[in-house]
Here is the input.
Amino acid sequence: MANKFGVITNDIQPIGTSNKNVENIKNRQDGLDFIKTLKDSIQDVNTEQQTSEKALADIASGQVKDLHQAAIAINRAENSMKVMLEVRNKAINAYKEILRTQI
Here is the structure.
């Protein structure tokens, strides 16, 4: 039996940390990546909302050529807003948790 386990363990490769991930963490500048990512995400949501509003205006005026594409644009805007609201809620909950922490 010991031989069976020895054969199995010899085939298992060790799990190591990725040097690339460690370097990325060391090279980050104190939260600037997070702020930039957050700003970019908000801008993306804004762009999706504007595209959705234009699609709705085109539908209302009868200028829409492809109803399917308009529906996709509206759905994308709705989903991106839902995700952004969830991120906001998580951030607020994290902030409240920090405030409750006793030192």
Q: What stands out?
A: The chain is about 80% helix and 0% strand. The longest helix spans residues 67-100. Residues 31-103 form one domain. The CA atoms of residues 21 and 86 lie 27 Å apart.
